[in-house]
Amino acid sequence: MKLIYQQMLAFFAVIITVIVVLGFAFIRTTKTMIYQNSWQQLQQYATSIEKEAIRYNTRTKKVVGFNQQFLNDGTAILRDQNIHFSVYDATKKVVYPTTMGLNSMPSGSFYAPSISGADWRKLKQNKTITKSPHVSFKSRNHDRPVNTPALRTIDVLVPLFYKNGTTKKFVGAISIGSFEQTLQANEQQIENNLFIALLVSGIAALLLSYILARYSVRRINRLRYATHSVASGDFDIHVDSNHKDEIDDLADDFNGMVSSLRASNEEIKRQEKRRREFMADAAHEMRTPLTTINGILEGLAYDAIPEEDKAHSIVLMQNETKRLIRLVNENLDYEKIRTGQIALNKTNFDGAEVLHNLVEQLTKKAAAAEDQFSLTVPETLPVWADYDRFVQVLFNIMQNAIQFSQKGTIVVTASRSDHAAVIAVQDHGIGMTPEQVKNIWERYYKADPSRKNTKYGESGLGLAISHQLVQQHGGTIEVESEPDQGTRFTVTFPDEGFDKPIIED
Ligand SMILES: Nc1ncnc2c1ncn2[C@@H]1O[C@H](COP(=O)(O)OP(=O)(O)O)[C@@H](O)[C@H]1O
Ligand SMILES: [Mg+2]
Question: Which parts pass through the membrane (predicted)?
Answer without folding.
Answer: 9-27, 194-213
